[in-house]
Amino acid sequence: MSIRILIVDDHHVVRRGLVFFLRTQKDLEIIGEAANGREAIEQAQVLKPDIILMDLIMPEMDGIQATKIIKEKQPEIKIMMLTSFSDQDHVIPALEAGASGFQLKDIQPDELVTSIKKIISGENQLHPKATSHLLANLSNKNKQEKNLLEELTKREVDVLKEIAKGKSNKEIAAALFITEKTVKTHVSNLLAKLELADRTQAALYAVKNQLVN
After folding, report:
1. Residue 179 CB burial class (10 angstroms; 0-12, 13-18, ≥19)
2. CB contact burial 188-213 (16+ within 10 A = b; e otherwise)
3. Which pTM was predicted?
4. Is 154 a residue whose pLDDT tops 90?
């Protein structure tokens, strides 16, 4: 079975070049082309490709928005971003939108073919620059969460642990030997400090940060 590919790029020469090269490759079939994000969404629905090679910056609708919409409607379609941009402002949103790969347009032709096949087999394929941005982003998120946790007082941490055990304010008050009113104050303060909306989020946060066994 050949891999069915949709190529999305607003530069006609780039599209033609990709089509010309990929058509020479065994097991690859070019089933369509699109010049912007809107066309990509339409083509994806009609043609149902196995993988889309998606440019980032395009008129009418960019690749990130198109990727998000396509993945919501057709999650089985794999998408590889193929772009000239490798900065964090493009890499992270593209991956968050659902892209399985991120490669730069200066990639070697043979490497592009390998990346396409690996994505189809279930592997994520990221250019080294994209990988470094992703790791830096995850590291920053972890640091932010740890910093937020450090802002809590010892008593607020105690209350958070009890929330994670599913206890009510009354039960927390009894367990910590404080008044129910004080518990309410602690809950309100810790939600604000951790930038959380409610007790459910607080419980999940506590579990995620290993505050409870």
Report:
1. exposed
2. ebbbeebebeebeebbebbeebebee
3. 0.62
4. yes
**How far is it, in rounded angstroms, from Cα 183 to Cα 174?**
10
Cα 144 to Cα 147: distance, rounded to the nearest angstrom = 5
β partners of residue 6? 32, 52
pLDDT digits (tens, 9 = 90+) for 25-75: 999 999 999 999 999 999 999 999 999 999 999 999 999 999 999 999 999
Please give the backbone phi and psi of residue 113, each rounded to the nearest 5 degrees, phi first: -60, -45
- What letter represents residue 141's amino acid? K
Return the closest-CA partner of residue 4 out of 47, 63, 59, 55. 47
Give dist(CA 119, CA 142) in Å, integer.
Answer: 28
Instruction: Please list, in sequence order, all residues whose beta carbon lies within 8 angstroms of the beta carbon of residue 202, skipping any fewer than 6 positions away.
Output: 160, 163, 164, 187, 190, 191, 194, 196
pLDDT-derived band at 135, boundaries 50, 70, 90: low
